[in-house]
Amino acid sequence: MTTTAHQLVLASASPRRLDLLAQIGITPDLVLPADIDETPRRGELPADYARRMALEKAAAAATLGAPDGAAILAGDTVVARGRMILPKTEAESEARQCLDLLSGRRHRVIGGIALRCPDGRIVSRLVTSRVTMKRLSAAETDAYIATSDWQGKAGGYAIQGLAAALIRHIEGSYSNIVGFSLYDIAAMLRGNGLLR
After folding, report:
1. Given phi > 0 = left and psi -120 to 50 = alpha, else beta, which region is 92?
2. Per-residue pLDDT at 118
3. Which residues are catalytic?
4. Rounded to an integer, what distance in angstroms lies between the CA atom of residue 11 and that of residue 49?
5. Is pLDDT larger for residue 195 or for residue 156?
6. pLDDT tens digit string along 133-191?
7. Are 83 and 44 in contact (CB under 8 A)?
8. What Rg do the C-alpha atoms of the chain give, in angstroms?
9. What is the pTM of this model?
10. pLDDT given for residue 180 in this prediction
11. Pairing of strands 71-81, 8-10
């Protein structure tokens, strides 16, 4: 797969998203990470938050020097336990709290995708995957925390890393859990004339 003559801008600093796009033969012409306030609004539901973040990142990239006529692709990944939005963990205490909440339970990973088309139209999608984590012993939690694989990861784990051994079952898109649903990205690009 290759993009058409339109330039493609990726509004993300995530190396995982770049790797995922490369997996289906897409290399953005430009990467413009959108540095926006990612604080959830009071009472905001996980799906609404994921869509808003993706849309705001696409809008921010448009003001950061994206070339005129370029397509802008943005995304956000939210790990949700019920109505609770789990953080992108930076501190060990946050990661432990997330793992305690997820241990032995099913949760949702919601991917918000926004595509700003060259003509200015904005299309978006939400993709939900369901993930069941095994019940973790204290020793398993300690061992995972010691790896630092959780740093900066939504919900305190990375399914494409060492946490793969902790995941009992998934329903839906695996690539969505990593960072972008490749099926949906390809469908959005193709449906808007950006992929041949």
Report:
1. alpha
2. 93
3. 76
4. 17
5. 156
6. 999 999 999 999 999 999 999 999 999 999 999 999 999 999 999 999 999 999 999 99
7. no
8. 17
9. 0.93
10. 96
11. parallel
CB 171 within 8 A of CB 130: yes
How far is it, in rounded angstroms, from Cα 68 to Cα 66? 7
Token couple for 183: 């099926």
Question: According to the 3-state scheme, what is the secondary structure of the chain?
Answer: CCECCCCEEECCCCHHHHHHHHHCCCCCCEECCCCCCCCCCCCCCHHHHHHHHHHHHHHHHHHCCCCCCCEEEEEEEEEEECCEEECECCCHHHHHHHHHHHCCCEEEEEEEEEEECCCCCEEEEEEEEEEEECCCCHHHHHHHHHHCCCCCCECCCCCCCHHHHHEEEEECCHHHHHCCCHHHHHHHHHHCCCEC
pLDDT over 90 at 5, yes or no? no
* Tens of pLDDT, residues 55-68: 999 999 999 888 88
Structure tokens that stand for 18 in this block:
């770049």
Whether 112 contacts 50, CB under 8 Å = yes
Burial of 27 (0-12, 13-18, 19+ CB in 10 A): exposed
For the stretch 17-46, pLDDT in tens is: 999 999 999 999 999 998 899 999 999 999
CATH for the stretch 8-191: 3.90.950.10
Please count the residues of the chain. 196
